Amino acid sequence: MITTDNDKEIPLGDKFNKVSYEQTYQALQQNGIQNIVDDINQQIANEQKYMKKSLACGTTQAKAGCHVTQRYQYTALRTLPANEIFPQLVAGFMLANQNPLVVGVNIVGAEDDRYTLEQYQQQMEMFAFLHKKFPNVKISIHAGELKPGLVPPKYLNNHIAGAVNIAQANRIGHGVDIPYENNAKQTIKTMADQKIAVEINLSSNAEILGVEGKQHPFMYYLKHNVPVVLSTDDEGILRTDLTREYQRAVETYHLSYPTLKNLARNSITYSFLDGDSLWANASTLTPVAACKGDKIGIKTPSTTCKNFLDKNPKAKLQWHLEHQFGQFEQQYN
Description:
The chain is built from 14 helices and eight strands. The longest helix is centred in the N-terminal third of the chain and has 22 residues, at 33-54. The strands form two sheets. A six-stranded parallel beta sheet has the order 1-2-3-4-5-6. It is α/β, with parallel strands linked by helices.
């Protein structure tokens, strides 16, 4: 997740704030927002070059980090006036549409901030407008990082639903206040039916919101077939990592090994990585036709399956994960 030099995007909001999103969007297009996007593209290119040089990628001394699959997600800051948020989002959607390394757009910042609370509907409408302009850009929204007592009750009733139904989010982050939302059952059904994943941040929610154990909706999402992904959130601040998040989930909710495997699978299946999924049906673990005759995860797949994997980075990473599962499980057979 990257927050760019939005000191360049934000001032455009005051200068070119029009009476409609379309008019503002056109004004931004005519007054240099592409130049800002070009600068961000160059910044990413410079960072990639520095990373590869530091890790000696492409040489005989290449370090392990060279093999890590890496993508970026652009983040806008939501704790600002609406006219300063919109140009950030425009730049983000344009960036993700142009740069294959940038796979999605998010909006972050305190959800109980006064600007977020007062403008939440408007922020979701901005996403909806830009989703129509850039339908192939993936959307992930921090939604529902709230609890009773943190905000007045009226602000607990629609944030997740707004992200799902208005902004057309492909994933949401946190989702803690789902029990207090209006039409929560319908929102949950929509997420399950449309495979809209929820990123669960157990340590973050415990430390920041004080919501954990049975108070947390983690099991509620699982039981209603919403795709669940474990995430760290503020890894450096909370002094956690993904392994500890899995450990916390196991110790708190006594998860089975098959459940843990599915959580790991979901991390790739519902990622914004380019290419098709290995699974024709992720719920039943039914592979795509090209790999249907293969034992999933074997070291040497069939020619047809290998060709499919080579063309689809997401599927290739999923296949590698299944291979790793097999290697791990052989130790205990």
